[in-house]
Design brief:
Structural class: alpha/beta
Oligomer: single chain
CATH superfamily of the largest domain: Aldolase class I
Number of domains: 2
Distance between the termini: 36 Å
Helix content: 40-55%
Bound molecules: flavin mononucleotide
Strand content: 5-15%
Shape: globular
CATH architecture of the largest domain: Alpha-Beta Barrel
Length: 317
Amino acid sequence: MIHLKIGKMKLDGNLVLAPMSDVTNLPFRLLCKKYGASLVYSEMVCSGGIVRRNAESMGRCLTSEDERPFGIQLLGSDAADLVNSAQILQERYNPDLFDINLGCPAQSVIKNGFGSALLKNPAMIGEIIEQLSSALDIPLTAKIRIMNSFDETLKIARIIEKSGAAAITVHGRTQKQGYSGKSSLEFIKGIKKELSIPVIANGDIYDEKTALEALEYTQCDGLMIGRAAIGNPYIFRRLSHYLSTGELLPPQAMDERLRDFYEYTALCRKYDMLGLNDLKLNAQYFTKGMDNIKSVRIEINKANDIDSVMGIIGGLE
Ligand SMILES: Cc1cc2nc3c(=O)[nH]c(=O)nc-3n(C[C@H](O)[C@H](O)[C@H](O)COP(=O)(O)O)c2cc1C
């Protein structure tokens, strides 16, 4: 097992949960942590919302001691706002690190010049990282997508390193690719070779084989898992078991998957986060791939209240 080190922080492994909007809330992160994620990130939060103390934005950063180490991912392009928001969040939630989002390809994000739009302005990236890392006494990481050319990607990665980031995550897709096509391990490997800060590989890691291949091929310090963890936090146990022993675990039993779903809902209740839409989505995610699930999925879709969703899932036991 490789221990990822970010700044002075030594993690207990090297598997990281990706920040995912509307997915990686506190209850979900706690499940990933339970199964062996060594570092978890909040979904992206817009610095403008934090500076205005918007309740919804602040709520996305809710954390608990049980999930540490915990990182908050910031989204924005104004260095002063970003610093200000990080300080507000540090005072309220005391995270172990911050990440800056330089990869989101959503139209609503890039039209404001945030996320992957910043990749077109390396000087601004340098400015943001320099100001954030010198204002903070905890590590700052950055998450990028690749550019069309390797040299352009490397130039940005070098600026990120030089400006004070403690680690970088590289998703091997371009902004234009969105989530389609293949994530390039080749670009990630090239960046790892040239940088001295830890590099975390991201994109299309969804099972033991893809995890091992990404680690061996890129020689990266860590792996970040996104979509494969949705409704499947158990993936962290599978991957960490395989990477440390070479053994494949059997598929997670259906009753255990349902138990995870109940644990998720119990945590949502505990933290006052239980909402119908999120519950319906997670009921779908946690039952994905189960036998004869199609009619159940249709029922979940039609459900109008929380009790109905819980009743439908209860019927599967
Ligand atoms: C639903 C969803 C929401 C996402 N939200 C964010 C986000 O808030 N911040 C971010 O940096 N990336 C976000 N991403 C991108 C993931 O962090 C990750 O880079 C991408 O999904 C590739 O990794 P994967 O192949 O393991 O899913 C999101 C992806 C998905 C599918």
